[in-house]
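cron nightly-structures :: item 1 of 1
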Amino acid sequence: RMDEEIASVAEDLRSPRNVTAFAQAVETLKSRLSTPRFCEKLGVVPDGGESGWTTLFKAVIIGLSWNRKWRRPNTVDGLKRMVDEADRAGAVLDVDAVERFISRTAD
């Protein structure tokens, strides 16, 4: 089962009401990424699930795909920060799953 804190952040990124809500969700993500406890939880893979890193990566991509105007430096920076933190944590991203997800999102 997905951690509630991760699920909440992912939902805010995936389903924002408007650009302000999306920008706030990205700021929340960046803030949480500065806490080691949150980053540790992102590495946990529940049975039959995906890591929190993968869940949040997909949520950011969904949020950025809602509206091209939402792709501002402050929102795109959230994606960069997450990738940087994942790299620092030694997280392994399931590239095949992400590529399948991105191709479905692009359709």
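cron nightly-structures :: done
The CA atoms of residues 99 and 105 lie 10 Å apart.
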